[in-house]
Specification:
It is globular and about 55 Å long. The protein is 30% helix and 18% strand. An eleven-stranded mixed beta sheet has the order 5-6-7-8-9-10-11-12-13-14-15. Strands 1-2 form a two-stranded antiparallel sheet. It has helices at residues 33-42, 52-58, 68-73, 82-93, 98-109, 180-187, 207-219, 234-237, 248-260, 280-291, 310-323, 339-342, 346-357, 446-453, and strands at residues 16-18, 49-51, 126-127, 130-131, 135-139, 142-145, 194-197, 227-232, 264-270, 295-302, 326-332, 368-373, 377-387, 390-400, 410-413. Strand 10 (295-302), helix 11 (310-323) and strand 11 form a beta-alpha-beta unit. It is of the alpha/beta class and 454 residues long.
C-alpha cells in the first residue's frame, strides 16, 4: 500500500504530470521499460494526465502494473488494437513530427466511438431552431452544462467515456462560454428541475470562474430549478481543492450560497476504488463539503483491472457511508474509447453488484446498478431469471428519453458474453424490445448510429 501519514498531507501546489514530463518524476524509473514504452506510445492517442498526489499517495508502486489506481490513471498497451499500437509505435520510434502523430492518432480516435449514446446527434438542445453548444438535454428533468474552462481534469481516468473532450478534436468537444443560452433555455422549459455542471471537471476552475456560471442560475428567478449538481473527480484525485487550495474556502462559501438559496446542491463524486477515500485529506474534503449543507454522492463504472471485485465495492460503499457520502450508481463501462480493455459481460457486472450489495447494510443500499447509460436511457440489469423454461436477463429503465418507459420491465435472452445493450436479443421470440417500436422508438443499433452521427 502507499505510505499514508496519520496527519493531512502537507499542502501541495497542483502540477499536472503528462506525457511531456512523466519521465522526470521519481516514480518513472520504477516502471519496467516495456511499460514505459507503452505509456509513451498509447498516450499519443488516448489522453494521459495525472498529478503528484495520485502518484505519491494513491498508487502502490510495488504492485505496478496490477495496482488498481495505476490501471485507472496510466494508459496501457492493450488499450489500443495491436495494429493501431504498431502504427503509433513505429511513428514514435521514428521521431515523427507532431502533425504526423496527430493525423495517425485522429484516424484511430474516430473509430473509437468518441461520442456514444447520441451525445452529438440527439442530446444537443435547440432554442428557436438554434443548437446550443455546451449543453445537453437527454432526460426531461435534467440539463447538462459543460463550462468551457472546466474541460480538463486534475487527472484523467483511462476508461473515461468523455475522453474525446481532451484530445484536441474541436468538433467533438462540448463547451459553453457563459450561461446566457442556458438561462434562455431554462426560461422556456419549466419541466427542467436539475442542472448538472459537468466536464471534464468543473472544479478544475478557480472559484471565481465557477461562480460566473453558478451565480446567474441562482439570480435568474427560475423557481422550477430546484437542484444543482456538480460532477467531479477532484474529491478523489485532488481533494486539496476543498481543503488547502488558495480558494478552497471560497469554493465552500459558494456551496453555502447555493444551499442558502433554498436549492439542493449535490456533489457527484466519482470514486472508483476505496483507496481514493483512504487518505486523511480525502476524508477531510468529504467533511468540509458536507459542512456546507451540500450532499456528496458516489458513482463509478465497474471496471476490469480496477474494481471488478465485490469486496472492493462493498468496502467503497461502507467507507463512503461512514464518512457521509451516499452510494448512488454503479455504471457499466460505456461503449467508447478503450472499452474492450475495461468492459465486463453484463452478467458478470450484475454478479459483482449483487455480491457486493449482499454484504452491506441498508444504509449502503441507496446504490443502483449495474446501469448502462445507453442511447434510449439508463438501463438497469436487474438480474438473471428463468421464465417459461428460458433463461433471460431482466432489465428496466431508470431514466429514458420517453419518461413512460421508466421502471417498465423487459427481458433479453441470456447471453454470458454481451457487454452492452445493442448486443442483446429480445427474449421469448420477440423481434424488438418495446422501446424500439412505434414513432417514439429508437434505432436498433444505437452504438452504430452514434458512430455515424459523430
Amino acid at each position: 500500500m502507499p505510505q499514508i501519514s496519520s496527519e493531512p498531507s502537507e499542502p501541495l501546489r497542483y502540477r499536472a504530470v503528462t506525457r511531456a514530463n512523466v519521465a522526470r518524476t521519481p516514480q518513472w524509473d520504477s516502471i519496467p521499460r516495456e511499460l514505459r514504452d507503452a505509456i509513451m506510445v498509447v498516450s499519443t492517442v488516448l489522453p494521459f494526465r495525472t498529478n503528484e498526489y495520485v502518484m505519491r499517495e494513491l498508487i502502490d508502486w510495488d504492485r505496478v502494473p496490477d495496482d488498481p489506481i495505476f490501471q485507472l490513471t496510466f494508459v496501457q498497451r492493450s488499450m489500443l488494437e495491436p495494429a493501431d499500437y504498431a502504427t503509433m509505435a513505429s511513428l514514435v520510434r521514428a521521431d515523427a513530427s507532431r502533425p504526423e502523430l496527430k493525423q495517425a492518432a485522429d484516424r484511430i480516435r474516430l473509430r473509437m466511438n468518441p461520442h456514444p449514446a447520441g451525445q452529438l446527434t440527439h442530446n444537443v438542445p435547440q432554442l428557436h431552431g438554434r443548437p446550443l453548444p455546451g449543453l445537453q438535454h437527454k432526460y426531461r428533468e435534467t440539463v447538462l452544462l459543460f463550462p468551457s474552462q472546466g474541460q480538463t481534469c486534475h487527472a484523467y481516468c483511462t476508461f473515461c467515456f468523455r475522453w474525446a473532450q481532451f484530445v484536441g478534436l474541436p468538433d467533438l468537444k462540448f463547451q459553453a462560454q457563459e450561461t446566457r443560452d442556458l438561462l434562455e433555455y431554462l426560461a422556456v422549459h419549466p419541466e427542467v428541475t436539475d442542472v448538472l455542471v459537468t466536464g471534464g471537471d468543473p472544479l478544475v476552475m478557480r472559484t471565481e470562474a465557477l461562480r460566473g456560471y453558478i451565480d446567474p442560475l441562482l439570480d435568474a428567478g427560475l423557481e422550477h430549478l430546484r437542484h444543482l449538481r456538480i460532477g467531479t473527480k477532484s474529491v478523489a484525485y485532488w481533494p486539496q481543492r476543498f481543503v488547502t487550495d488558495p480558494d478552497a474556502d471560497a469554493l465552500l462559501r459558494l456551496f453555502e450560497r447555493v444551499v442558502a438559496s433554498g436549492r439542493h446542491l449535490a456533489i457527484m463524486g466519482h470514486y472508483s476504488h476505496p483507496r481514493e477515500l483512504s487518505t486523511p485529506i480525502a476524508q477531510e474534503a468529504v467533511r468540509r463539503i458536507r459542512s456546507t449543507g451540500a450532499e456528496l454522492r458516489m458513482q463509478s463504472p465497474v471496471i476490469r483491472h480496477v474494481n471488478d471485485d465485490p469486496d472492493t465495492w462493498a468496502d467503497l460503499w461502507r467507507t463512503g457511508v461512514r464518512l457521509g457520502a451516499v452510494p448512488y450508481y454503479m455504471f457499466v463501462e460505456r461503449d467508447t474509447g478503450p472499452k474492450r480493455y475495461f468492459e465486463l459481460p453484463l452478467v458478470r457486472a450484475w454478479e459483482v453488484f449483487a455480491q457486493a450489495y449482499a454484504q452491506v447494510s441498508g444504509l449502503c443500499r441507496t446504490v443502483r446498478g449495474p446501469s448502462m447509460s445507453a442511447f434510449p436511457g439508463k438501463v438497469l440489469v436487474d438480474g438473471v431469471a428463468e421464465i417459461h423454461g428460458e433463461s433471460v436477463l431482466c432489465l428496466q429503465f431508470l431514466q429514458a428519453r420517453d419518461p413512460s418507459w421508466v421502471r417498465r420491465p423487459f427481458f433479453a435472452k441470456f447471453d454470458p458474453h454481451a457487454t452492452w445493450l445493442d448486443q442483446l436479443t429480445p427474449a421469448f421470440g420477440a423481434e424488438h424490445f418495446f422501446f424500439e417500436r412505434g414513432p417514439t422508438g429508437v434505432p436498433r443499433s444505437p452504438r452504430r448510429l452514434a458512430v455515424v452521427g459523430g
